TrEMBL record:
Keywords: ATP-binding, Kinase, Nucleotide-binding, Serine/threonine-protein kinase, Transferase. The lineage of its organism: Eukaryota, Fungi, Dikarya, Basidiomycota, Agaricomycotina. Residues 267-331 form the AGC-kinase C-terminal domain. Residues 339-361 have a biased composition (Low complexity). Residues 444-453 have a biased composition (Basic and acidic residues). This is AGC/YANK protein kinase. One of its GO terms (biological process) is G protein-coupled receptor signaling pathway. Pfam families: Pkinase (PF00069). Belongs to the protein kinase superfamily. Residues 22-266 form the Protein kinase domain.
Length: 453
């Protein structure tokens, strides 16, 4: 009788999927934002990879575009992010041309703080460029697009060629190993481009561009002294130091951010006030017009055969008819309900035992009590300074009214503006023995391994 209290609680395999449905086996990987381990579904005996994120380690910084919610329907996966009404720096650079030194210094300071934060979490962004810097409605800069961000280690350098070529550091192109300093090289390219309207290293072909980045001297436009102070030019040149151990922003053993703060170009910046967003940005995006490319809306209206709208999930869907990849997504989503599940269960919030729900609960909680200086999108029922609600502001300021802005822009690999990419070794794909394995002996061996860890 005394052992009755320790009897395992019955698992409802017909209800919402949660962590109790799986045996936790070996840890097999670590990404930029979480870890991966092998798990086995207790009922189906199928093996899966489980990715999970520790809530206190989630990225949350004043100058990073933060994830708030993640969910899916039958056709799409959705990620809800901080709203940035100011547009990206590429848009403003294309529309208005080169920016003043004061504005560029302000952006570089905010971006440098965000980069230093990422590096403190052992994360390197690898794709800093004007397209990936978004402004909020007040004019503060935020880093976005972490598609190719990755964890780094000083003991084992990264070797993958990843990013946008025109912004790649020399050590990335030579494939000799790199880590955090590559972000500060990209920041130097970005600063130069914002100041002068063109990048310092250029080439008509990828080979020519690579040669320019690796070998050519840093040259300044003839009108550079009139656009940038000697301190500013020195800071940019220090970011573009080919030796990563001498690059501004990075110091072996740490402390690189202090070198940036003490550089004469940033002497007048109050870093504490900047972090709290108490410093008024020198440039404020025009709230009366759309700060985005209106052609995106034109494409949605005229070319999209299946425009986005809220749709209810299909009831009683036979997941066996789906592709293996889609079936896995359905089985692993936190609010999936197999056929026969009770209607009341279907309307409940997903169990806190699931990784996805733990993360989304953490994120949604931050909406109410931000752990960092406020971003405009933190406010519920956001009203802009023009007195219009955000939806009305977007419709009034943009939509089809500003089609006279930027036209369709074809991406080019030659000048480095192509979408970010990552080159991986061309290794022949091998069969995956862990997938859909139901061999009893294999199952027992995996259980033994899991219990031993």
């Amino acid at each position: 009788m005394g052992a009755a209290c320790c009897k395992p609680e019955a698992i409802d395999f017909e209800g919402e999927v949660n962590l109790f449905h799986f045996y936790l086996l070996r840890s097999v990987g670590k990404g930029a934002f979480g870890k991966v381990r092998v798990v086995q579904h207790k009922h189906s005996k199928t093996l899966y990879a489980l990715k999970y994120i520790n809530k206190p380690k989630c990225i949350d910084h004043p100058f990073v575009v933060n994830l708030r919610y993640a969910f899916q329907d039958d056709e799409n996966c959705f990620f809800v992010l901080d709203l940035m009404l100011g547009g990206d720096l590429r848009f403003h650079l294309d529309r208005a041309g080169a920016m003043s030194e004061e504005v560029v210094r302000f952006y570089v300071a905010e971006i440098a703080m965000a980069v230093d934060y990422l590096h403190s979490k052992r994360i390197v962004h690898r794709d800093l460029k004007p397209d990936n810097i978004l402004l909020d409605e007040k004019g503060h800069a935020h880093i976005t697009d972490f598609n190719i961000a990755v964890h780094f280690s000083e003991r084992r350098l990264l070797t993958g060629v990843a990013g946008s070529m025109a912004y790649m550091a020399p050590e990335v192109l030579t494939k000799r190993g790199y880590s955090a300093p590559v972000d500060f090289w990209s920041l130097g390219i970005l600063a130069y481009e914002l100041l002068f309207g063109k990048r310092p290293f250029r080439g008509r072909t990828n080979t020519a561009l690579t040669n320019s980045i690796l070998n050519e001297h840093l040259l300044w436009p003839e009108d550079a002294p009139g656009k940038c102070s000697s301190d500013g030019m020195h800071a940019i040149k220090s970011f573009l130091e080919r030796d990563p151990n001498k690059r501004l922003g990075y110091r072996p053993g740490g402390g690189g951010m202090e070198d940036i703060k003490s550089h004469p170009w940033f002497r007048n910046i109050n870093w504490d006030q900047l972090y709290k967003k108490e410093v008024v940005p020198p440039f404020e995006p025009d709230s009366k017009r759309a700060n985005f490319d209106a052609t995106h809306e034109l494409e949605e209206l005229l070319l999209e055969e299946n425009p986005l709208k809220a749709r209810k999930r299909k009831e009683g869907q036979d997941i066996e008819t789906l592709t293996p990849e889609m079936r896995m997504m359905e089985e692993q989503r936190s609010y999936y309900h197999p056929a026969g599940a009770s209607g009341s269960a279907a309307n409940q919030t997903a169990s806190s035992g699931t990784t996805a729900t733990a993360v989304s609960s953490h994120l949604s909680a931050k909406m109410a009590v931000p752990s960092r200086p406020e971003t405009p999108s933190d406010r519920i029922g956001l009203i802009s300074k023009t007195g219009m609600d955000v939806e009305g502001q977007i419709l009034d300021g943009g939509g089809m009214a500003n089609m006279g802005g930027r036209g369709l822009r074809v991406s080019s690999q030659i000048d480095g503006r192509q979408d970010s990419f990552e080159l991986r070794p061309n290794v022949a794909k091998q069969p995956t023995p862990l997938r859909n394995s139901t061999n009893p002996s294999t199952t027992e061996k995996m259980k033994d391994v899991g219990s031993a860890i």
